[in-house]
Amino acid sequence: MRPVEIKEGIFWTGVVDWNRRNFHGYSISHKGTTYNNFLIKDEKVALIDTVAEEFWGAMQCNLAHVLGPEGKIDYFIINHLEPDHAGCLALAVEKYQPEKIYTSPMGQKAMQAHFHYKDWPVEVVPTGSEISLGKRTLQFVETRMLHWPDAMLTYCPEDKIAFTNDAFGQNWATSERFADQVDRTFLEDLMKTYYANIVLPYSPVVLKTLKALEEMNLDIDMICPDHGLMFRGKEECKWVLDKYVEFAEQKPKKKAVIVFDTMWHSTENMANAVASGLADEGISVRVMSMKSNHHSEVMTEIFDAAAVIVGSPTHNNGILPLMADMLTYMKGLRPQNKIGAAIGSFGWSGECVKVLTQALEEMGMDIVDPIKVKHVPTHDTLVQCYQQGKDIAAAIKAKLD
Ligand code: FEO
């Protein structure tokens, strides 16, 4: 994709990765992503972030479109060192020989650890620092742990743009560049997926950072994340900022997710009985087999659910491996405000619900009594599962009403 002038003298020079499918275990399905970066032409020319290393050729091409083949870049601004954004940094330093490379205090440490540089002209810009490009100023705000310690935001007051790096991103490869050009419902869904699978553990930091930004009273009329669509206009910016507050507060809906793996369908039949009990009480239910769903799809559904019911038969004195994977993934993302329950069938030793319940307890969930069934559920034990669904529904209502 060719560069796009997003405001006078400011260009999107990123790349579209149509075929990316996975970020460290987070499946982005068939949507791909973009690595956005930005070139500002002023008395000094500044580049904000790079792109993934395999797109070095495309990035140079885009920069040459704006600057000409021998174009010079004076300043690099590196908001985040993860290789999808800083992957071309070493190549770009060699080619463009920048006068300065600006990054956060933690960014400088990460830059050293990634690139082991000796004589790069790195200058640390903690929160409150600013530089002049001539007509424009760039101000820096550290956004530590959103989602790495090095993360920072760059704000241009003259153009009212916040370059926010990973924050407010979505993984969606599109030919459109702005959020107002695409379907809003789908965009919001992808923002939610991105938040649930990347940003969720840092929700307290999100709230703190948004509050700090509000107190700084930044006048923002464009938000440019490093992934996906950008937001232009005050209303759009307010929408996306409010959306992040909503995500970070993790207020659950009247919704339950039953996630399970099954050996010979006993745990699956139990899951369906629990689902009926929940649905009959008016709770919206998702029943998700780990054989049919990626753990990141399950996590997106769990994100705004009030209850999580996990199911596995006993397997080698523990649980089935796909459920162990799911629990590890979920625990790392630290979902809050959930009710949890376990179900499972067993043949002889029967550790499944103990293992599952312990995992839910470690995530701080409010536990509803588990149910385990020997080999194959009977009509009566399925009624017990149905009743467990009703009990979980009552717990959800008691919590939310
Ligand atoms: Fe998009 Fe943290 O990298």
TrEMBL record:
<protein>
    <submittedName>
        <fullName>Rubredoxin-oxygen oxidoreductase</fullName>
        <ecNumber>1.-.-.-</ecNumber>
    </submittedName>
</protein>
<dbReference type="InterPro" id="IPR001279">
    <property type="entry name" value="Metallo-B-lactamas"/>
</dbReference>
<dbReference type="Pfam" id="PF19583">
    <property type="entry name" value="ODP"/>
</dbReference>
<dbReference type="Pfam" id="PF00258">
    <property type="entry name" value="Flavodoxin_1"/>
</dbReference>
<dbReference type="GO" id="GO:0010181">
    <property type="term" value="F:FMN binding"/>
</dbReference>
<dbReference type="GO" id="GO:0009055">
    <property type="term" value="F:electron transfer activity"/>
</dbReference>
<feature type="domain" description="Flavodoxin-like">
    <location>
        <begin position="256"/>
        <end position="393"/>
    </location>
</feature>
<comment type="similarity">
    <text>In the N-terminal section; belongs to the zinc metallo-hydrolase group 3 family.</text>
</comment>
<dbReference type="InterPro" id="IPR029039">
    <property type="entry name" value="Flavoprotein-like_sf"/>
</dbReference>
<dbReference type="GO" id="GO:0046872">
    <property type="term" value="F:metal ion binding"/>
</dbReference>
<dbReference type="InterPro" id="IPR036866">
    <property type="entry name" value="RibonucZ/Hydroxyglut_hydro"/>
</dbReference>
<dbReference type="InterPro" id="IPR045761">
    <property type="entry name" value="ODP_dom"/>
</dbReference>
<keyword id="KW-0560">Oxidoreductase</keyword>
<dbReference type="GO" id="GO:0016491">
    <property type="term" value="F:oxidoreductase activity"/>
</dbReference>
<dbReference type="InterPro" id="IPR016440">
    <property type="entry name" value="Rubredoxin-O_OxRdtase"/>
</dbReference>
<dbReference type="InterPro" id="IPR008254">
    <property type="entry name" value="Flavodoxin/NO_synth"/>
</dbReference>
